[in-house]
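Weekly modeling sync, notes
Attendees: AB, CL, MP (scribe)

Item 1: holo prediction request
CL wants a bound-state model with arginine before deciding which constructs to order. AB pointed out that an apo prediction alone won't tell us much about the pocket. Agreed to run with the ligand included and paste results into these notes for async review.

Input as submitted:
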Amino acid sequence: MAQLWGGRFTGPTDEKVYAFNASIGFDKRMLRQDICGSIAHSAMLGKQGIISKEDASSIEAGLRQIYRDVLAGNLEITDKYEDIHSFCEAVLTERIGDAGKRLHTGRSRNDQVALDMRMYVRGEVCAADALLETLLKEILKVMKENRETFMPGFTHLQKAQPVTLAHHMGAYFEMFRRDRLRLADIYKRMNECPLGSGALAGTTYPLDREYTAEKLGFDRPTANSMDSVSDRDYLIEFLDALSIIMMHLSRSCEEIITWNTDEYRFVEIDDAFSTGSSIMPQKKNPDIAELVRGKTGRVYGALMSLLTTMKGLPLAYNKDMQEDKETAFDAMDTVCSCIDLYTGMLGSMRFNLETMEKSASGGFTNATDAADYLVGKGVPFRDAHGIVGRMVLECIAKKISIDDMSLEDLKALSPVIEEDFYTAVKISTCVEKRITKGAPGPAAMNDEIALCEEYLANAAVLTDPLNEILL
Ligand code: ARG
């Protein structure tokens, strides 16, 4: 047991208590953040004359060495230490002596953990953004290649009107684009530095908070020291954004699972992204899509968990807040791997264009267009709706589609119908005539694709300022 706070105690900590209280098992992933934060803090202490310049530089060298040693496998982060902060300080002091003991001047683990967590989350916001950008590029590729791949658009999972695959995927482009906007927004709001807030009430040392904030890539220091150590809003916002990303992935996976069935056969998932059955030799299962859909639950869980943890906490720091990590880390890992796997699955999936188009031609997806044809011939829309309704009834009875009706039968329903009716209700015409902005018609779709391209060209991926700090 290596603790930072033994002085006030006369008896040892119970072993079970120690293990229950410790967070090293999961906060060790914040090593880089902890080292960078401590280097910035000690440099500031040196600059302000709070510790000597010599101490500041031996602290910096010592911390860099610790980082390198852990990465090289020469130094192990063991549960002998309570948390990552204790580990770094204890090893530093072991190695450089008294200077190491001066590192924590004007700092508390409360602002230290607030800083580390914020920097860790900032890095993950950037990682998620980069993965989403790759995914958007993949979606755009599918869109560009499938402007004329006709398929049924559904409402209530019933065939509704014909669209194109480009149009369908364009909907997902918008969802994931909004996800990126959300991340950029969270980044902007969270990029304030809590270091220098102390335990809760600031410190009596002349700290330069602007200096450390700038060194660590923050826009400014946080405004209120009590808020700084007790705020996890940014993490809740991130978990919310991650939950929405999962909801989007899950909806698409649900469609892919359906489209991959024998009944639909709209798509075939590549062997590399499918699995087999231990008993049924014929099976090729969409396990990856199902897992992405399934993992959505644990990400929502992380959001609910943190909201619940935070709801009853009085100001300022409470140990409950250590519970912000495990489920959140799990959510971040989960979402990143889900975006990555989904991108791979989409990129290698085959679309059965003919099956999709054939499906679009059935199920009366052109009924609205038949009504619009009548409107074009002067019939009021409500009457046209009724006429086409009867047309559909007749087709159902004869087991044919609207396109297969004879002109004679059509004329019996409405005398305004002429030969040009057949062109008007062809699937390609139905799509072509959808000219409103945002519709699947070729002109509108080309505009939409151009906007997607413009967006991707201009929306730079968020970058983690800590990557610039060479250790
Ligand atoms: N491991 C702790 C956490 O993650 C660090 C902060 C400890 N602060 C304290 N006052 N006990 O929250």
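Recorded for review: The mean pLDDT is 96.
Action items: CL to compare against the apo run; MP to circulate these notes.
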